[in-house]
Design goal:
The structure is a homodimer.
Chain A: E1 4-9, H1 13-24, H2 26-33, E2 37-43, E3 60-62, H3 65-69, E4 76-79, H4 86-96, E5 100-103, H5 106-123, E6 127-128, H6 139-146, E7 152-158, H7 161-173, H8 177-187, H9 195-198, H10 201-215, E8 225-226, H11 234-242, E9 245-256, E10 259-270, E11 282-289, E12 293-300, H12 304-324, E13 343-344, E14 350-357, H13 365-375, E15 380-384, E16 396-400, E17 403-404, H14 405-416, E18 426-431
Helix pairs in contact in A: 1-12, 4-5, 5-10, 7-8, 13-14
Chain lengths: 434, 434
């Protein structure tokens, strides 16, 4: 069968990983497909500094993306520049010109994926977005096709490798967040501006895409309650360990009778769950299905080559659709709203909570906090205090029985009017039964 | 778009799970597909005893499978009767009649899958086999498409839930195999004739299919060295734990410079590996890719509903191919032999080994065993003896440095001529670096 040709816009880390695989693994890719994947155009502002594999053969090299999306030899445009402005222009122009598109751009897809898919279908081309979530883990293929027959009821993910690396370092060395972050930046595991990662926005974009696929619903990032990991202290791990839990940044989507509750936030997870074994910069997704029960997917969440595998596997799938004439075979985005899964506010979440307090040393404070909780209908589960000699400088912890986030927030608002609190209490949901 | 219709041959446990999902989840399935999946024919010898969901509407009910494979309304025949004789007739007749086929039959696919795929392609129909391996884990979709761009270098699986249940029960309660097996049979976790499971044949069929997909190679079960779990003793777990290992029935396929080494056998795996966390009747597959590094997939390996999810997801995929006119879009079986992956005998395996001995109490025995190992070029790593008072009744263990299975077997053959051995030594490879 005839070769399918690719043009890549943005030849940075992932672009080079993609090119390496396309060049080195060309024979096996062609054997699996029954035809070859060729590279015909590359666009980058610093292309001359990139060690483009010679095995690719003659390639158009340009710094103007328009030359790629209009190149008549190119069947599939790979968008790897990131951001949402130029990237959107590239993707939409490619589609307008009858090219299929593969992208690793989670932010673009979380914000405009559904619209972009409609445009692709309108033009009879395909769209591949596997690389936009969880790098080397083929979780979108799993949700779109692998377990399509199931009805997903909950999905919990560790979707940001930087945060998971930082949290496991805090856990291992009992070192504060700021110190670990600096070290992570020095090692290149965290960006100079870490906001997207440590404040949860990167994970939020990924969850928006995953939840759209898992629940057949249009989800926008603003539907997702988002809280980063800056407030997590080493002492939170000590308390968590007392209860055989640990702390992770969990991206969660759960179906409730009232609707879909979506959040990205630091959470306590039981050490008995398989998610708790995810350490360092790995990503993982745990899916609960009504029929298939629980499945779990784990792998590298980032990196040139693992993400390159996602890009190349998507290129192969899209190339197969092109050769089979089946661009609309599987929608990566929900077209119909099932209605049963409407996103609802986080205040509707029902969960047990971990509450960490720092207070001035006065008598009767626990009684007063307990009274506030009782007043909002919240039952205490335990009061924890680490057996340290100078415990007055240490925070203490109250865990609650399951309650609503709404009640919890009302209690915290009430507590905020009390003058013995040294800082706002820090609350995390406790996920024991994953 | 027009409905795609299904006929099911064999309405037992998995058949009922499949029907439940098709009936209960019909609306979501239709939304995802853009068209409906209907059930038009059911065949079973005891159909009148099955609680067929009324929501399916009018259905042809028969005890003659020929009526299903010739029913003009049926687009896809689901084969769920098992075995390789009648099942093969059903599948081949369905294909001859222009029907696509979905099957959960691992034995049939391991033995004849490649031929059956050739027939399907010859007739322009599709073949879905996701349910034949690892129940609710969509591992075939992952290997065929999800990580198609990668080059798999090793694959390790826990593929038999019965064996994993038995081994974790031995581990938990320090109870011998025979007692645990009886209990498992009483609870319905093991068959009255447990041979297929505990002697490794079930896992062997699954590995044959997985390895064919992962390495693009025609693998037959006879290529796979197979050894069951009957010789595993509670004391093996005690020794394993001393080294921070555990014991599992591991189905392994590894690429070596000389070729592909395939085995199903009890193995020591490090507790630090994610596979070691797989307990009870769960299944899991760990895949090492040259580019994507390690990914890991976990879920229910059996059960009516999890396997039903695999059948229904496959039905959806095949229905999509039918509606898109792309039956040959992705081959489930290798058509071309890459050559680099030829199966080679287990004697070529290079591994560290765990050797358990029971010997008569005489002086100098460890020295004699060590001399035999040294004579075959095998270096000792450690000699382990549990600190029991009556240790003379207990076996002791020698672990080796990495060596070839060929050298190991030569050493064991030499030892067999020594008269102080009470039983044949029990050898397991040690997998520390998964």
């Amino acid at each position: 069968m005839q070769q399918v040709n690719v043009g890549i816009v943005g030849v940075g880390t992932i672009g080079m990983g993609t090119l390496t695989i396309l060049a080195e693994n060309a024979e096996q890719i062609a054997t699996k497909l029954g035809f070859s994947l060729g590279v015909k155009a590359l666009c980058d502002l610093a292309l001359e500094t990139r060690p483009i594999p010679a095995a690719l053969g003659p390639v158009q090299k340009t710094s103007d993306w328009r030359e790629v999306v209009t190149n008549p030899e190119v069947d599939i445009v790979v968008e790897l520049i990131g951001g949402t402005h130029v990237a959107r222009e590239v993707v939409e122009a490619a589609i307008r010109n009858g090219k299929s598109v593969v992208t690793a751009n989670k932010e673009l897809m979380a914000l405009y994926g559904s619209d972009i898919w409609d445009r692709a279908i309108g033009q009879g081309v395909n769209l591949g977005i596997e690389a936009s979530v969880a790098g080397g883990i083929p979780i979108l293929a799993v949700l779109r096709e692998g377990i399509a027959g199931d009805r997903v009821t909950a999905l919990f993910g560790i979707l940001n490798g930087t945060c998971n690396y930082i949290l496991t370092e805090i856990e291992k060395h009992n070192t504060p967040f700021d110190i670990v972050l600096m070290e992570a930046q020095r090692l290149g595991y965290a960006e100079a501006d870490p906001t997207l990662d440590v404040d949860g926005f990167d994970a939020r974009s990924k969850l928006a895409i995953l939840a759209a696929l898992a629940f057949g619903e249009r989800i926008t990032p603003s539907d997702i309650y988002t809280e980063g990991i800056r407030r997590v202290l080493p002492v939170d791990f000590l308390y968590a360990h007392q209860m055989d839990y640990t702390v992770r940044l969990i991206a969660a989507a759960r179906q409730t009778p009232a609707g879909l509750v979506l959040s990205v936030r630091p959470s306590l997870i039981s050490n008995r769950t398989i998610l708790a074994g995810v350490r360092g910069s790995y990503n993982a997704i745990w899916v609960r299905g009504l029929y298939g029960e629980d499945t779990f997917y784990y792998g590298r969440g980032a990196g040139a080559r693992p993400t390159g595998v996602a890009v190349v596997s998507d290129l192969m799938r899209v190339a197969r659709e092109i050769r089979s004439g089946s661009p609309a075979r599987v929608s990566p985005f929900a077209h119909e709203r099932l209605g049963e899964y409407e996103p609802i506010p986080i205040t509707r979440l029902k969960s047990a909570y971990y509450l960490r307090f720092r207070v001035e040393d006065r008598p009767g404070i626990i009684a007063r906090l307990a009274a506030v909780l009782a007043d909002k209908g919240i039952s205490l589960d335990a009061v924890l205090q680490l057996p340290e000699e100078n415990w007055r400088d240490l925070p203490f912890v109250i865990t609650t029985q399951p309650t609503t986030e709404e009640s919890l927030r009302a209690a915290l608002a009430e507590m905020a009017t009390h003058d013995y609190l040294i800082e706002t209490p820090f609350a995390m949901p406790m996920e024991g039964r994953l």
